[in-house]
Specification:
About 45% of the residues are buried. Helix 2 (about 35-45) packs across helix 3 (about 60-70), helix 2 (about 35-45) runs parallel beside helix 11 (about 280-290) and helix 4 (about 100-115) packs across helix 5 (about 135-145). The strands form 3 sheets. The chain has an 8-stranded parallel barrel with strand order 3-4-5-8-9-10-11-12, surrounded by 6 helices. The protein has a two-stranded antiparallel sheet with strand order 1-2. The chain has helices at about 25-30, 35-45, 60-70, 100-115, 135-145, 160-170, 190-195, 235-245, 250-255, 260-265, 280-290, 300-305, and strands at about 5, 15, 15-20, 50-55, 80-85, 85-90, 95, 120-125, 150-155, 170-175, 200-205, 275-280. The chain has about 300 residues and is an alpha/beta fold. It binds NADP nicotinamide-adenine-dinucleotide phosphate. NADP nicotinamide-adenine-dinucleotide phosphate binds near residues 21, 215, 259, 276 and 277. NADP nicotinamide-adenine-dinucleotide phosphate binds near residues 22, 53, 278 and 288.
């Protein structure tokens, strides 16, 4: 299967659909059975996905641990494992940001232990730490890279100016911003910046936490973190759900599901390399993988953009 792209100047060769594992964070998503996730992560590889995104903070280590178990039987040199750090968390639930050099070195060891891996392919700063000079964080990242514990490093949730600062201190070769057809703000600044610097872009929440799947009619209620999200209640939810469902005829024209159409439209942007899709089941990743390599006519692309609006 030739569904591989180069992730900017990181040189990492990855599938344009990345497996997202934040769903193993009970505080946000409730209890998702870990056996189901293990099955889904292995199925991902069978359907052409080689790129997996996790973070130490997802379930305070749970996601890394389960992803490590899931990926253990797969050929290590054929998968690209990305994780993140930023939240210094404790057993009693306390947490605070920490990208100090000391913590970066310590936490990388913790992540490797949970993942049961010898190295991390892509180590990302989950967010910007206002207390630590980036030069200090970068020095630690470079130490990890030189010792072979990480292959590449990148950032997430950074503004363009923060990325510029990071770029002055080291080789941050990827960015992980939020982007969906409903949240297109980065088109004006971060995407052109990353393209100029040949920084690989992997976007998170491309289905807007499930809203852009077409599976809702706007009457559903949620017990997870979406209960507090304004897009998942009231008239706004109904309007957005109807707008997404209105895409059905376009999806049908391309013999795609709405999920696949939305992901294909997301990846149609030439400055977006990968879409990280949040996965709970094998069926989720099978469907998402079906969007890889699919193209949409210009007219339909803009019709989709016009339909998906707040
Ligand atoms: N760097 C960061 O700060 C950051 C922040 C957020 C996320 N992320 C990463 O990005 C990933 C994706 O983000 P996300 O989880 O917010 O959002 P998402 O991909 O926009 O939405 C995920 C949700 O969409 C639904 N879904 C996925 N595939 C489906 C399918 N084929 N059919 C029907 N429903 C489907 C599921 O909803 P149900 O739960 O309703 O089944 C799933 O929980 C995360 O897992 C994580 O790896 C990173």
């Amino acid at each position: 299967m030739n569904n591989r792209i180069k992730l900017g100047r990181s040189g990492l060769e990855v599938s344009p659909i990345c497996y997202g594992s934040w769903q193993l964070s009970p505080k946000y998503w409730g209890d998702v059975p870990t056996a189901q996730v293990v099955e889904a992560a292995r199925r991902a590889f069978e359907v052409g996905v080689n790129f997996y995104d996790t973070a130490d903070a997802y379930g305070d280590g749970l996601s890394e641990q389960v992803m490590g178990e899931a990926l253990a039987p797969l050929p290590r040199d054929q998968i690209v494992l990305a994780t993140k750090l930023y939240w210094h968390f404790y057993d009693d639930g306390r947490r605070h940001p920490d990208l100090s050099g000391k913590y970066v070195i310590e936490e990388c060891e913790n992540s490797l232990r949970r993942l049961k891996m010898d190295y991390i392919d892509l180590y990302q700063l989950h967010s910007f730490d206002p207390l630590t000079p980036l030069t200090e964080t970068t020095e630690a990242m470079e130490k990890l890279r030189k010792s072979g514990k990480i292959r590449r490093y990148g950032v997430s949730n950074f503004t363009v100016e923060q990325m510029r600062l990071a770029g002055r201190s080291g080789e941050y070769t990827t960015a992980q911003p939020r982007y969906s057809l409903l949240d297109r703000g980065i088109e004006n600044d971060l995407l052109p910046y990353c393209a100029t610097e040949d920084i690989g872009v992997l976007v998170f929440s491309p289905l807007s936490h499930g809203l852009l799947t077409g599976k809702y009619d706007g009457t559903e209620t949620f017990t997870d973190f979406r209960a507090d999200n304004h897009r998942f209640s009231g008239q706004k939810f109904k309007d957005l759900a109807a707008a997404v469902r209105s895409l059905a005829p376009i999806a049908e024209k391309y013999d795609m599901s709405i999920v696949q159409l939305v992901l294909a439209a997301t990846l149609a942007n030439p400055y977006i390399d990968c879409a990280i899709v949040g996965i709970k089941t094998a069926a989720h990743i099978e469907e998402a993988a079906g969007a890889m390599g699919k193209t949409i006519d210009r007219e339909d692309y803009f019709a989709i953009r016009n339909a998906i609006k707040e």
